[in-house]
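pasting for the record
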Amino acid sequence: MESELQTNNQAYPFMIVLSLFDGMSCGQIALRDMGIPVTRYYASEIDKWAIKQTQLNFPDTVQLGDVRNVEARTLGHVDLLIGGSPCQSFSFAGKRVGMSTTAHEKVLTLARYMELKEQGFEFAGQSYLFWEYVRILAEVREANPNVLFMLENVEMGKQWEAVIDQALGVKGVHINSALVSAQVRKRIYWTNIRTFQADLFDVPESAIPQPKDRGILLKHILDDEVPDRFYLKPETIEKLLQHKQRNKANGNGFGAKFHQGGDCPKTIAT
């Protein structure tokens, strides 16, 4: 099997990748597992522990820091832009304010975001950072108009999904990771890899098919015998419960869920 990425009849024998909101570089793990050689991998991330893990696994990663300060024009040619911008303000578990200022103005275009950013306005939550992805995509396209991209985010209200569709010029494909894992994780993926034009008056749609359901359940990935050190201590559980109560008081549903009994002989959090 050749190590190349086939998209729209184009072959990429190597890749220069820019990953925004890189986390522990799962994008780099996926490319490695697909057999796609990466010549250079730029990563934008601010969490020190995620960066430390990335550099342990992939020491050649070029860390760029805060996405708001990334100057993509200085990077030259980029083949692939990936990322998963913050989801909390989109999520049905949160307050769903989307991309808004603290004064409740909805930010619907990159141009308006750039005006507000320049004027020093404060934004609600972190989901507004999607516009940094769009800004950087535009800058990357100056050197490579055919750059491939993929953005991941959570299931959200139709209004904000439509804003992202228009900003990226493609409709997102909805995939639940429960099809391929033991976790219910409903997400939307926007990409210009494999698209088709279903409606001449609307943006293109993704031709990426739904994964086959592998029927993986939590009981399939849990070990029968696990040392006690891998279970949460009572004081840790208490702190997680307090954290969940604080989130509930703030009007959102973020927090751990605890399971005990059945296939889970001890208390675990998910």
